[in-house]
Amino acid sequence: MNKKYLFLSESTLKIIAIILMTIDHIALFLLPSNSDLQIALRAIGRLSMPIFIFMNIEGIYHTRNIWKYFLRLFVLGTIMDIVGIISKYGPGNILIDFSMYTIIFYFLKQKNIKSLISIFPIAFLVLSDLQISVFGIQFFNSDYGTYGLIFALFIFLAKEISFYVCKNQANIMQIDQDYFLEEKLQGTYNVAASIAIFIATALFYVIYRIDYTLPILPGTIAIQSWCFFSAVFILFYNGKRGYNKPWFKYGSYLYYPLHLLILYSIHLAI
Fold it and tell me: How many whole angstroms separate alpha carbon 244 and alpha carbon 252?
């Protein structure tokens, strides 16, 4: 895709994902279950999940300190777990998923045997729908489990394949690699990630049609299948940070648990 058509920054993409997620959760908590309006709004909200995973993978590649990035996600996810236990709020915690993806794909990106061995215990915890029980209380509730990890893997592979293809093209055309990557990589990756999201969505939908009782499928798989439309936004991502004031950076992390608590409280009150 031509670079001039890439006009969505990271901050803009994040705002879009937050709005979509909020629509989804408003429908989940405040509308009658299985009503036409709830189903329609939840289908729209499902577009947020691949966008957040896409940005998580981008964060792994571009963060200055992978461990600070991991700790922001993990600590906030743990706090959300504690608040969830106190309030008896039950659903899984996507911040735990993202913190695990960060470690898994950071090590996978290193492309050495020691790093590959390191990811196995973490991947096992996610694939087993990570839940750790302390004195009978469940912590670290993964939200998407195997489903989310496979989605993230497909997007990660799209990133790696895009690098490989662009570097090879530069060599074949005898063009400076850095210049070629600057001009072509982002558009190539956007297309590859969009294809990866479509393939992952199609794969899980086929699995659902074969046997909808399999534990790797999320309970909302029929609605979740609409998430492939997230490619409409990802295709126009320009790889730039955009607005990055501290209040926005850290506020976007805090928004997830805070809006859930507010909506859950309203749900209990009505």
Answer: 11
| Confidence bin at 210 (pLDDT 50/70/90) | confident
**What tokens were used for 253?**
């992390």
Hey, where are the domains in the chain?
Answer: 3-269
Q: How far apart are CA 36 and CA 218, in angstroms?
A: 20
Tokens of 26: 């408003």
The answer to whether residues 45 and 21 touch, using CB atoms and an 8 Å cutoff, is yes
CA distance from start to end of the chain? 48
- The letter for the amino acid at 251 is G
Residue 103: φ, ψ to 5°: -70, -45
Distance, in Å, from the CA atom of 228 to the CA atom of 127, rounded to the nearest integer, reads 22
DSSP bridge partners of 139:
132
**Dist CA 36 CA 94 (whole Å):** 26
What tens digit of pLDDT does each residue of 126-183 get? 555 555 544 444 556 667 777 888 899 999 999 999 988 888 777 777 777 666 666 6
